[in-house]
Task: structure prediction
Amino acid sequence: MLLENEKIKIRPLISSDVTKDYFNWFKDKLIKKYVVNTTYKDINHLKKYVFENSKKKNILFLGIFTKKNKHIGNIKFEKINIKKKSAVMGILIGNKNFRNKGFSTSALTMTMQYLNKKKKIKYFFLGVNKKNIQAIESYYKSGFRISKEKKNTLIMIRNYDLLNLSKFSLGTAQFGMNYGVNNKFGKVK
Result:
């Protein structure tokens, strides 16, 4: 599997993708603040994590790369349930130089479209810290909406049945006719 557009390439993450740069992402204060499971003892511990997750059937663990093959982040779908048509996901743009430039929104859109088309996944869930405003904005751009609020966390859902919800409108145009607010008689003429 390889997904790509004009900005990025996305493919399954493998142990050889675990480099010193990747390991160092987890020393970043912002990542420590907002990402769960950032305490890897050493690079081998991280390689083991990547290897184990790449072998699980209900997980899709992907690396996000620039067009020049620079590893800049990861996106992971887990608890993939074909019967319920659902998955839980998380994304990390680990390389600071590529944050807030649309890479996460692009990666989210591409991967969710892929899973919707190939696996018929309709419901994507994620949890995000309420203070992680930049991530929340990216999720909104990708079609996620808040489903639940917990103490410090928002649970968000992306429902592919409502694919173009942000572009959907409902209403009527009256054009001077006697219906809606212009109907003073209760009947359409």
The mean pLDDT is 84.
